[in-house]
Structure to design on (287 residues):
């Protein structure tokens, strides 16, 4: 049975799982690193308790195994032991609760003056990203990116900046999720604006998804997060504010060809016609 179980595991997958104890190791924000550290500390604490308990179990099995027909000495209670297994779990839970509250408060903390604000608008079944001049519903949009059936929307953001996300939905509940951020937040319709902040510290391109079942094409509701240096982001935003399209603005900061579009995911054919549509909106071979 063990051989059959291990045959389904690769060296990479086993190393990755044990390297982070099941938690993704490659977070891309300062908040993700803090959550990762919390997870590792909690898992190590659980393993210490587990090893102690397993040791006691096996010690009892070996030490007090049956050696004859004589009835062993019966003990009604052991006050020190009962105090130990009552106080110890309470202390463990208290410590875990304390550090969990600290990390959670830090992840949810909103600064008075973030470096930039992005309004995330979810709708069936795509995304709109509005770059705002300040936090709050009364702020003005200075540039925007709108996704469509044929083109995956790009959310371009800089490293090293406090970025405020303000989320709203035009119809039903969605959920804004980039797996590498190790964090997601639901997007509600109406006057509810869910807000959170991140500080990204790793450049790259990452697929984003809706993580709340929102209807027929929920699985197609994707976007791409593009993290660049602050200098390149300033050039990108300047191009967008000057009226450039998102592909043209991506070209202005050095991306060429298909790199100007999403590379981590691609549009799905929601027309059910047997044809596939590429990033530029032209019909490709039937798939």
């Amino acid at each position: 049975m063990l051989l059959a179980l291990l045959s389904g595991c690769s060296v990479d997958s086993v190393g990755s799982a044990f390297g982070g104890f099941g938690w993704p190791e490659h977070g891309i924000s300062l908040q993700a690193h803090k959550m990762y550290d919390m997870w590792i500390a909690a898992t190590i604490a659980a393993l210490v308790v587990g090893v102690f308990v397993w040791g006691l179990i096996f010690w009892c099995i070996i030490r007090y195994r049956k050696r004859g027909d004589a009835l062993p000495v019966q003990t009604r209670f052991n006050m020190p032991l009962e105090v130990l297994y009552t106080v110890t779990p309470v202390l463990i839970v208290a410590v875990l609760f304390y550090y969990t509250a600290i990390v959670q408060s830090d992840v949810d903390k909103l600064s008075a003056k973030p470096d930039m604000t992005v309004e995330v608008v979810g709708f069936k079944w795509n995304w709109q990203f509005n770059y705002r001049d300040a936090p709050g519903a009364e702020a003005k949009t200075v540039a925007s990116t709108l996704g469509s059936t044929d083109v995956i929307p790009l959310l371009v953001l800089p490293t090293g900046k406090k970025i405020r996300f303000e989320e709203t939905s035009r119809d039903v509940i969605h959920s804004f999720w980039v797996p590498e951020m190790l964090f997601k937040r639901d997007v509600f319709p109406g006057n509810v604006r869910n807000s959170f902040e991140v500080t990204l510290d790793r450049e790259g391109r990452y697929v984003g998804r809706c993580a709340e079942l929102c209807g027929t094409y929920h699985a197609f509701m994707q976007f791409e997060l593009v993290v660049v240096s602050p200098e390149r982001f300033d050039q990108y935003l300047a191009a967008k504010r000057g009226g450039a399209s998102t592909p043209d603005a991506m070209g202005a900061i050095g991306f060429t060809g298909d790199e100007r579009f999403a590379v981590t995911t691609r549009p799905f054919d929601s027309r059910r016609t047997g044809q596939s549509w590429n990033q530029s909106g032209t019909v490709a071979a039937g798939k």
